[in-house]
Specification:
The structure holds three protein chains of three kinds. Chain B is an alpha/beta fold. Chain B is built from eleven helices and ten strands. The longest helix of chain B has 18 residues. By secondary structure, chain C is mainly alpha-helical. In chain C, strands 1-2 form a two-stranded antiparallel sheet. The longest helix of chain C is centred in the middle third of the chain and has 31 residues. Classes of the chains: A alpha/beta, B alpha/beta, C mainly alpha.
C-alpha cells in the first residue's frame, strides 16, 4: 500500500541575505512498508522528522533522495500527483486551520468538489462521511461553534469523503482536551476497523498508540524502533532516551518489575497490570 | 498574603438570548505559597476564573481581595495587580513579538517602569530560571523550537517577578520530555522561590504528580477542593462530569476490590509502587 | 463569544425572499436601484413604495432590522437634505431665514432625494438580510463568470471572500486573546496620545500578523492536500439552479421596471 525506500528529505536554511546557510536532513534514509488495513502509529519528539515524513505520503513534499510509493504510484511523478493526494488523505494538527467551509457539510464537500465528483454523489459522500465520524447531526452548523474534537472529526470526514485508501493524521489530538482526544481516536479506529482504511497516526500520546498494530519510533530523521506496541513499550529505557514516554500502566509495571516483582514485559493497559498483579498476589 | 474570592459570579452577554453563566457564586481562598491544580473540562469556567484573578475580566458580582485589598475598589491599580499575579496564557508563544529573545522578555519589566538595565537584569534571571542560557538572548524568538518559544514566553511573565504565577495549560502541544521539563521547572520555582503557582491542566497525571491542592470546576462552580488523594477519591463523580482520575487511581481501586491490602488513594506512580510492594511484603514476599 | 457574531447582517427566517436564488436577488437589487434613478415625479415613487412595501412584508424580516441600516447613513442623509433644501434655486420662495431661502423646487428635490436615498439603503439591506454571505458569494461568482473570458479571476476572488468569512471571527477572537496576554504583561492599550497608542499596538499587531500568516500557510497546505487546484474541473456541491419561483421573480422585476419606465414616459 505504502512503501518507502531509503527516503531522504533535505531542506535548506537561508541567512538574511538569501545565501544558503545550512542544509538540514529532516528525514534520513527511512524505509518502511505499510499493508492495506494497517494501523500504524508514528512516535517521536518534536523535530524528529515525523511531520516531514507524513507530508511525503500526501505528496505535499517529495523526497530529495529515495522513493516513496503510494498505492503503487511514485509520489515524485507529477502525473499522479492528484491520484496520490486522493488515495492518501491528510488531517493536520490545528483544527481551525484546515476547515475551509463556513458550514460543516460544505467543508466535507470541498474535497469531492475539487475532484470533480457529480453533485448527487457529493451529497451521498458527505452524508456517509459525516455519519462515519458521528457528526451528521451537526451538518448545518458553523465550524466556529464546534468543540475541538468535533472540528477534527469534521476534518476527518472531509478526507473520508474523498474515498481514500489511507489517512495520515499528523498529531490530530495535540490541541484537544482528553474528551476530544477520545472522540477523535474512536472515530479513527472505527474507520480502520469498519471501512478498512489504512491509518497512519502521528502522536505524542502513548495511550493512543496501544491500538496500533505497528509502531515506528523516529529520532533525528531516522526510524530507530519498529514493532508492535507491546514490543516497543517493553523497552522503557530506550524510549526515554528518545525523549518519549510510556503509558502509566506500563510505567508502573516496569517500576514494580525493577523492584523485584516477577511481572511480564510490555504490559499496556491497566487491566493487564491488575490481572498480572493478582496472579502474583 | 492571599487571594480571596467571595461570591464571584460572571455572566457573558447578560440579559440577552446568549446569556451564559461562566462563573456561579465562586468562593475560594488561595493561600500564599500553595501549588494548586485547577481542573475542569473545556467550558467549565476555569479560564474565566483565572482571568479574574489578575483583573483582566471583571466579575458581574462578588468581590476579590488581593492581600486584603478589594481589587474592584475605586482607584485600585490594576496594572500593579497584573504584575503581582502573572498569567501565562495557553500557547503563550503566540504573543512573542520582539526582534530578539531578551527584548521580548524585557517587555513586562519595562511596562512596570523599570530602567533598561534593571529590566535586562530581571529578564536574564527569568531566562535562566526557565533553563535558557545566554546564547539564546540575541536570537529571534521566531527561530526557536516550540518548547523554547514557550519558555521565552513564560520567562516574559516571570521577569515581572510575580508573587502568584498562573499557567493555563503550559504543556499543550509539547512532546513528553518537553512536558516534564516545563513542569519540573515550574515545580522548582515553587519550591525555591516560594511562588504561589496555579496550574490549569487537562492531565490528571500531571496534576497528581505536582500539586498539593486541586480545585475542580464544573459548569462555573467549584465541584471539589482538596488534596489530590481526597479529590480523586471521587473519581466516579469526576467521570460523570466528563473528567477522569489518573490511571493509577483506577488501578489502585481495582486492586483493592480484588483483595489487595493496599492504599487505594495513591495517585502517583511512586505512591502506587510503594503501597503495592508493601502489600506484597505484608503477605510475606521478600522484595 | 466573539465567534458568535454574524458577518453581514443575515436575518434567518423562512420566506420566499430567503429561498430565492441569490442571482435573482442580486439582479433584483440592481434593477430596483436603476428603477429608482429612472423615476421622475411622484407616481413613480408611489409605485416604488408599493413594490418595496410588499417585498418587506414577504421577507418576514422585522421592520426595525430593516431601518437599522439607515442609522449609518443618517449624516449623509441630513447633509443631502440640507443642501438640496437651501441651495436649489426656484421660482417661489416659501421661507427665508437671513440669506438662506427655501424654494418650492428646493423642498420638492430635497424630499425626493431623501426618499430615493432611503429606498436605496432599504432595498440593498433587504438583500443582505435575506441572503447568507455564502449564497451571496456564490451568486456573485456565477453572475460574474462571463468576466473569466477577459481573465478576471472570478473563482479566486469568490474563494477568497468565503475564506475571509470563515476566518474573520477566528482572527477577532485571536486579537482579543493576544490583547489580554499582553495586558497581563503590563501593556496599556487605553492611555496615552495618538502616537503612543499607535506604538503600543505593535505588541498586538506583530503576533496577529504572524498568526494570520501561519494560518494562511496551514490552510493552503490543507487545501492542497484535499486536491484543490483552482476553479477548473471543479464541480459544486450546491450548484445554483433556478426554480420556478425564480423565473416568476424575474417576471415581477421586469413588470416593475416596465411600470416605472411607463410612468416616466407617460407623465
Amino acid at each position: 500500500m505504502i512503501k518507502a525506500d531509503k527516503l531522504v528529505y533535505n531542506y535548506r536554511k537561508y541567512d538574511e541575505e538569501g545565501r544558503e546557510k545550512e542544509t538540514i536532513r529532516a528525514v534520513d534514509g527511512v524505509s518502511f512498508d505499510v499493508q492495506k488495513g494497517d494501523f500504524i502509529a508514528v512516535l517521536g519528539h518534536n523535530g524528529s522528522g515525523k511531520s516531514t515524513l507524513a507530508k511525503h505520503i500526501n505528496a505535499l513534499l517529495t523526497p530529495s533522495e529515495g522513493t516513496l510509493w503510494v498505492n503503487g504510484m511514485d509520489t515524485s511523478d507529477e502525473d499522479h500527483l492528484w491520484d496520490v493526494r486522493q488515495s492518501a488523505g491528510m488531517v493536520f494538527q490545528n483544527p481551525d486551520n484546515q476547515i475551509i467551509g463556513t458550514i460543516v457539510e460544505e467543508d466535507v464537500g470541498f474535497g469531492p468538489e475539487n475532484m470533480g465528483i457529480p453533485t448527487n454523489e457529493i451529497w451521498e459522500r458527505v452524508e456517509e462521511s459525516l455519519k462515519a465520524v458521528n457528526m451528521l447531526k451537526y451538518r448545518h452548523h458553523s465550524p466556529n461553534r464546534l468543540s475541538g474534537g468535533q472540528k477534527q472529526r469534521v476534518a476527518i470526514a472531509g478526507v473520508v469523503a474523498m474515498h481514500p485508501k489511507c489517512i495520515v493524521l499528523d498529531e490530530p489530538t495535540a490541541m484537544l482536551d482528553p474528551n476530544g482526544r477520545k472522540e477523535v481516536i474512536r472515530a479513527v479506529r472505527a474507520l480502520n476497523q469498519v471501512e478498512d482504511i489504512t491509518v497512519i497516526l502521528i502522536t505524542h500520546y502513548m495511550e493512543e498508540v496501544i491500538y496500533a498494530n505497528k509502531v515506528l519510533v523516529m529520532d533525528d530523521g531516522k526510524v530507530v524502533m519498529q514493532g508492535t506496541p507491546r514490543e516497543i513499550f517493553s523497552q522503557v529505557d530506550t524510549l526515554k532516551s528518545y525523549r518519549l514516554d510510556v503509558p502509566q500502566a506500563t510505567l508502573l509495571a516496569w517500576e514494580l518489575k525493577k523492584a523485584g516483582l516477577d511481572l511480564p514485559d510490555g504490559i499496556l493497559t491497566r487491566e493487564e497490570l491488575v490481572e498480572a498483579l493478582c496472579r502474583l498476589y | 498574603m492571599s487571594i480571596v474570592l467571595e461570591h464571584v459570579t460572571y455572566t457573558y452577554s447578560p440579559d440577552t438570548a446568549y446569556e451564559i453563566h461562566a462563573l456561579k457564586d465562586v468562593n475560594l481562598e488561595i493561600k500564599d505559597g500553595q501549588f494548586i491544580g485547577l481542573i475542569g473540562h473545556t467550558g467549565s469556567g476555569k479560564s474565566t476564573l483565572v482571568q479574574h484573578l489578575n483583573g483582566l475580566v471583571k466579575a458581574t458580582s462578588g468581590h476579590i481581595y488581593f492581600n486584603g485589598e478589594d481589587i474592584y475598589a475605586p482607584g485600585y491599580d490594576m496594572r500593579k495587580l497584573r504584575s503581582k499575579v502573572g498569567l501565562v496564557f495557553q500557547y503563550p508563544e503566540h504573543q512573542l513579538f520582539e526582534v530578539d529573545v531578551l527584548s521580548d522578555v524585557c517587555f513586562g519589566p519595562k511596562n512596570q517602569g523599570l530602567s533598561q538595565e534593571e529590566a535586562q537584569k530581571r529578564a536574564r534571571e527569568a531566562l535562566r530560571m526557565v533553563g535558557l542560557s545566554e546564547e539564546y538572548e540575541k536570537q529571534s524568538p521566531f527561530e526557536l523550537s516550540g518548547g523554547q518559544k514557550r519558555r521565552v514566553a513564560i520567562a516574559g511573565v516571570l521577569a515581572m517577578e510575580p508573587e502568584v504565577l498562573i499557567l493555563d495549560e503550559p504543556t499543550a502541544g509539547l512532546d513528553p520530555r518537553g512536558r516534564d521539563e516545563i513542569l519540573d521547572e515550574i515545580s522548582y520555582l515553587h519550591k525555591e522561590r516560594g511562588i504561589t503557582v496555579i496550574l490549569v491542566s487537562h492531565s490528571m497525571e500531571d496534576v497528581a504528580k505536582y500539586v498539593e491542592r486541586i480545585i475542580v470546576m464544573n459548569q462555573g462552580e467549584v465541584l471539589h477542593d482538596g488534596a489530590p488523594r481526597e479529590v480523586f477519591r471521587h473519581y466516579k463523580e469526576l467521570e460523570s462530569v466528563g473528567l477522569a482520575a489518573p490511571q493509577v487511581t483506577y488501578i489502585m481501586h481495582t486492586l483493592k476490590e480484588r483483595g489487595f491490602d493496599a492504599d487505594e488513594d495513591a495517585t502517583t506512580i511512586e505512591e502506587a509502587k510503594e503501597t503495592i510492594l508493601e502489600a506484597f511484603r505484608k503477605k510475606g514476599k521478600k522484595i | 463569544m466573539i465567534r458568535d457574531i454574524t458577518l453581514g447582517q443575515y436575518y434567518p427566517a423562512e420566506s420566499i425572499l430567503h429561498r430565492l436564488d441569490p442571482r435573482v436577488k442580486l439582479t433584483g437589487t440592481v434593477a430596483f436601484l436603476v428603477g429608482l434613478f429612472l423615476i421622475k415625479g411622484w407616481p413613480g415613487y408611489v409605485a416604488a413604495t408599493i413594490f418595496l412595501f410588499i417585498m418587506i412584508r414577504i421577507s418576514k424580516v422585522p421592520f426595525r432590522f430593516i431601518v437599522r441600516g439607515l442609522k449609518t447613513i443618517f449624516i449623509i442623509l441630513l447633509i443631502t437634505l440640507v443642501f438640496n433644501l437651501f441651495l436649489t434655486p426656484g421660482d417661489r420662495i416659501l421661507v427665508q431665514i437671513w440669506k438662506l431661502r427655501i424654494t418650492d423646487k428646493g423642498l420638492y428635490t430635497a424630499v425626493f432625494m431623501a426618499v430615493r436615498l432611503i429606498y436605496l439603503i432599504i432595498g440593498s439591506s433587504l438583500m443582505t438580510l435575506t441572503t447568507t454571505p455564502n449564497d451571496l458569494t456564490d451568486g456573485l461568482e456565477t453572475l460574474l463568470s462571463p468576466l473569466k473570458k477577459i481573465h478576471v479571476p472570478v473563482h479566486e476572488i469568490s474563494m477568497m471572500m468565503s475564506i475571509a468569512l470563515r476566518f474573520i471571527p477566528i482572527l477577532l477572537e485571536e486579537t482579543d486573546k493576544i490583547m489580554k496576554a499582553q495586558m497581563a504583561r503590563g501593556a496599556d492599550f487605553e492611555h496615552g496620545n495618538l502616537i503612543q497608542r499607535a506604538k503600543n499596538l505593535v505588541p498586538l499587531l506583530v503576533p496577529l500578523f504572524i498568526s494570520a500568516f501561519r494560518r494562511a500557510n496551514d490552510l493552503a497546505m490543507a487545501m492542497e492536500a484535499r486536491c484543490y487546484r483552482g476553479g477548473e474541473g471543479r464541480t459544486k456541491m450546491k450548484p445554483l439552479i433556478y426554480a420556478r419561483r425564480d423565473y416568476f421573480a424575474y417576471g415581477i422585476l421586469v413588470l416593475f421596471l416596465a411600470v416605472i419606465i411607463a410612468l416616466r414616459i407617460l407623465l
